Amino acid sequence: MRREKVVVAMSGGVDSSVAAYLLIQQGYEVIGISMKLWQDGGRCCSPENIEDARRVARILSIPFYVVNLVNEFEKEVVEYFCEEYINARTPNPCVVCNEKIKFGVLLKKARKLGASYVATGHYTKVNYDHKKGRYCLKKGKDREKDQSYFLFSLSQYQLAHTIFPLSDWTKSEVKKLADGLNLPVSQKKQSQEVCFILQKSYNDFLIQRIPNSSRPGPLLTKEGRLIGTHKGIPFFTVGQRRGLGGGRRKPLYVMEIRKKDGAIILGEREDLYSRSMEVSRVNWVSISQPEEKITCKVKIRYQHPESEAVVYPLEEKRCRVDFFQPQWAITPGQAAVFYREDTVLGGGWNERVIRN
Predict the structure, then answer these.
(1) What number does CATH give the domain 5-180?
(2) Three-state DSSP class for 81?
(3) pLDDT tens readout for residues 209-240
(4) Is 251 exposed, middle or buried (0-12, 13-18, 19+ CB in 10 A)?
(5) Which active-site residues does the annotation give?
């Protein structure tokens, strides 16, 4: 019987390495591929990381290749990242990279190689619901490491050709297994930074990439009073406190970023709480688009706890979200993901705060 082929996206880290091993144990024909995404290496595809992936592939006795996706990554992820900041939004490049690169370009290449699936080291789960006739995206066993938030925009086709071997594993179990297999990446630390930014801050990166982005503008209170100037809207995000100057009775935070006049609107901490927002480019994953409002939990950014809300479907892949409790610093450009228990119902992009 012919074994099914799986392409594993190998980053040189412990998660993708163990994912490859588990698939071998399950009887798949495994091919390891590392993606070169950034001309200067980057944190995720540095020469060292690619060599680590090659060493693991050698230990596992699987074929290994490096594919150059620098141009695709530049177009789909880096340009998006810069444009979002220019447009007064805070980007989430990991979501876009997953949709466009790992489960987009790489999946197409995998299919051309005769592979049925792409696999990664994400801590999340996908299964097929026969009653719904849909692939469902769910949280992984390790809730602290769960990465379903970053995968809400995947299509049914992408989920149908994806395997997450670590869905029923915890990070500690993965590290223990890697130790037992003597994999050279077992104790390797995972970077939490934006993978393609090697500068000290994203500000330096933006100045280098888009020099004309640093246009000065006014710092205004929510009442419209001018209290200073700033160097450019790409250097700010909603909820930011640093870089606003001091000497005030109460600390101020970025409350709103206005592209039309380049103004940064400041408020006190309590001013940043909101009950409602509009979400755009909604992708319904585990359910078809509801015709009426639904109650679920919504996460407005990865490190933010889920909160009960009512989601009202609108036209043109939009919806309105009304939270039971006010949420702090709802940020345009970040992902809003809808959950019911362990299932990702869908998600979209925070478009604007609706102030009541």
Answers:
(1) 3.40.50.620
(2) helix
(3) 888 777 899 999 999 999 999 989 998 999 99
(4) exposed
(5) 97, 195
